[in-house]
Specification:
single chain, 431 residues, alpha+beta, Alpha-Beta Plaits, eight-stranded antiparallel sheet, five-stranded antiparallel sheet
Length: 431
């Protein structure tokens, strides 16, 4: 998604360096010209939704809000401003062997506010959860320039409307996040990955069922088709790893002895299913390169069309096998029902892309799933169902947007009324 959306404006972006300055600039716009405001963090999610170039819009970047406000290490919490990058946050935490266990692509560019607003997560969501599990306090500024807060610096807070959760995934359409308080986790002493290849995705599906009863405790269950495996191994510069067949990559962590025991237990459990190859990766340098390449998969710029399917975990591999026949490179977080796909279609091949997307959406609907578009050519954006098929929650989301931003000034058009352009499937029938 990086650099695939070039926002234009009649003026230079504004870059507040304090919460007071942020409030002042938004308030002045609201009582004055009421121009649309495009909110931008590190820019890694700039291709999301229906947001369009708008010469009249104010571009507001949060990168000037990048301070660590409070870090009571013994409490395992940290309060930071929204423009701090994930790489900067990680650098601060690692010195005290603590972490925010959220896998974020392009960490040197992505900001914590952007990660919250886009609800970014990766492989380790299976064992560690998502931003909903770590955001315990937030300060934001609404469209009128009024600051509000929710939660606090302790893990438990009083009951009430959970504005923290409301801001997660809002894509900057409800308010501008200025500060967050996060719960943290200790860094594990050791981490290992078991790289196992099988003849078919169906073979892996059978294995996944048995892992629910495994004596090991995986923190990530990633399934890659051969195309994705080749992309990831090339990015990690680990040519010794086989990529000709589908891959099951199992990540475990803990004490060094515990990791060794888990990897050996998994190897024995998988042996019953006769994997073609079963390689443990415990070397820190190799393991970190592989984990980074898996995380970066969703940001590879070699594909014009990138999508994400949200499915019941039990249907993940079946849908993945169907999508594999369409020629996509596919990575699934199999324990969570998430499949990320990339397709190297040419920008001129809109009709071909729309047919493939239509078939994939129809297949996902069979399992009560959905398919959203993460990246596509700019000229396609208004034609595609960027957020997939309508969900029951959309009407409630419209009402919340109307209450908090009735003039649709914040990231105007991002959801575009959740409109659903008609797509045609391979038989030419509108779906």
């Amino acid at each position: 998604m990086v650099n695939c959306y070039n926002m234009t404006s009649t003026s230079q972006p504004i870059r507040p360096t304090s919460s007071a300055e942020l409030q002042k600039q938004i308030r002045e716009n609201y009582v004055g010209s009421r121009r649309p405001i495009h909110i931008r963090g590190g820019g890694t999610g700039a291709s999301a939704g229906y947001l369009q170039d708008d010469p009249s819009a104010i571009v507001l970047t949060t990168t000037g809000l990048s301070r660590v406000i409070d870090y009571p290490k013994d409490d395992m919490t940290i309060t930071i401003e929204a423009g701090l990058t994930i790489a900067e946050l990680t650098g601060t935490l690692v010195r005290h062997r603590q972490q925010l266990p959220i896998d974020v692509p392009v960490p040197e560019q992505a900001t914590i506010g952007g990660v919250v607003a886009a609800n970014i997560s990766g492989s380790r969501r299976f064992g560690y959860g998502t931003m909903r599990d770590y955001l315990i306090g937030i300060i934001a500024v609404d469209v009128q320039g009024q600051q509000f807060s929710a939660g606090g610096r302790v893990v438990k807070n009083v009951a009430g409307y959970d504005l923290c959760k409301l801001m997660i995934g809002s894509l900057g359409t409800l308010a501008v996040i200025s500060q967050v308080t996060l719960k943290l986790k200790p860094v594990s002493e050791s981490t290992g990955i078991l790289w196992a290849t099988f003849e078919t995705l169906d073979d892996i599906d059978v294995v996944l069922e048995t892992l629910l009863l495994s004596s090991a405790r995986p923190v990530a269950l990633d399934v890659l088709n051969a195309r994705a495996a080749q992309t990831i191994v090339t990015g990690a510069e680990l040519k010794q790893l086989p990529t000709e067949q589908p891959v099951l990559a199992i990540t475990v962590d803990g004490l060094s002895a515990e990791v060794d025991w888990q990897l050996e237990s998994l190897r024995k459990e998988l042996a019953v299913f006769m994997p073609t190859v079963c390689l443990p990766i415990v070397n820190d340098d190799q393991r970190q390169k592989l984990q980074s390449a898996i995380t970066q998969f969703s940001q590879q710029q070699s594909a014009v069309l990138a999508l994400k399917a949200n499915l019941p975990p039990s249907a993940t591999l079946d849908w993945m096998a169907y999508a594999d026949e369409e020629g996509l490179a596919l990575l699934s977080h199999a324990g969570n029902g998430i499949v990320k796909g990339r397709f190297p279609v040419e920008p001129t091949e809109y009709s071909r892309a729309i047919e493939i997307l239509g078939r994939l959406r129809a297949k996902a609907r069979q399992y009560r799933g959905n398919v959203v578009v993460d990246t596509c050519p700019h000229t396609w954006r208004q034609k595609l169902p960027m957020f997939g098929d309508p969900e029951p929650s959309w009407s409630l989301m419209r009402k919340i947007k109307q209450q908090l931003d009735p003039d649709d000034l914040l990231n105007r058009g991002m959801f575009n009324e959740f409109r659903l352009p008609a797509l045609r499937n391979s038989d030419g029938v509108t779906s």
